[in-house]
From TrEMBL:
Residues 10-155 form the PTS EIIA type-2 domain. It comes from Bombiscardovia nodaiensis. Keywords: Phosphoprotein, Phosphotransferase system, Sugar transport, Transferase, Transport. The keyword Phosphoprotein applies. InterPro entries: PTrfase/Anion_transptr (IPR016152), PTS_EIIA_type-2_dom (IPR002178), PTS_IIA_fruc (IPR004715), PTS_SugarTrans_NitroReg (IPR051541). This is PTS mannose transporter subunit IIAB. It holds the Pfam family PTS_EIIA_2.
């Protein structure tokens, strides 16, 4: 097992991964994933966290292309850093670098302190390296179950 795999497995929580999510808007994705994060004890407030996500969305596109988006929110409502992942049942509109919508959304919850931000940068870098592999992105886009998502990110 590589250090990269260990780091990823430490942060992935099967309880914050959902597949086949039926939504029409970014707002619905944010609310669903924030609710999962709250239920699993990563954030205190869905409303405060969604507000932090919107603040970040206002700074620029979070769609990285290839139908994948990596939104994030940095807030004091985050008790510990986490990632929530949604594989949507169809593509929805999303501002992106390649003008495609999103079908896979990896939402980062980041603590407001400096330590949280530093860990966030490390995780974002790790995910970016994973998602740069076409085989990983294609496997995520086809994922039908939580097991499929975990397997795709373990490649």
């Amino acid at each position: 097992m590589t250090v990269e795999t260990e780091s990823l497995s430490e942060i992935l929580d099967r309880g914050t991964i959902v597949t086949g999510l039926k939504v029409e808007t970014k707002e619905e994705v944010f609310t669903k994933l924030a609710t999962l994060l709250q239920e699993r004890g990563y954030i205190e407030s869905v409303d405060a966290f969604v507000a932090a996500i919107h603040e970040r969305e206002g700074q620029g596109p979070t769609g990285i292309g290839g139908h994948v988006a990596i939104p994030h929110g940095r807030s004091s409502t985050v008790k510990r850093n986490a990632i929530a992942i949604a594989v949507l049942d169809h593509e929805i509109p999303w501002e992106s670098l390649d003008d495609t919508g999103a079908k896979v959304v990896a939402l980062f919850a980041v603590g407001a302190d400096d330590e949280g931000s530093q860990k966030h940068l490390q995780l974002l870098s790790l995910f970016a390296r994973k998602l740069a592999k076409d085989e990983v992105t294609q496997a995520l886009l086809r994922a039908q179950s939580v097991d499929d998502v975990v397997a795709a990110l373990s490649k």
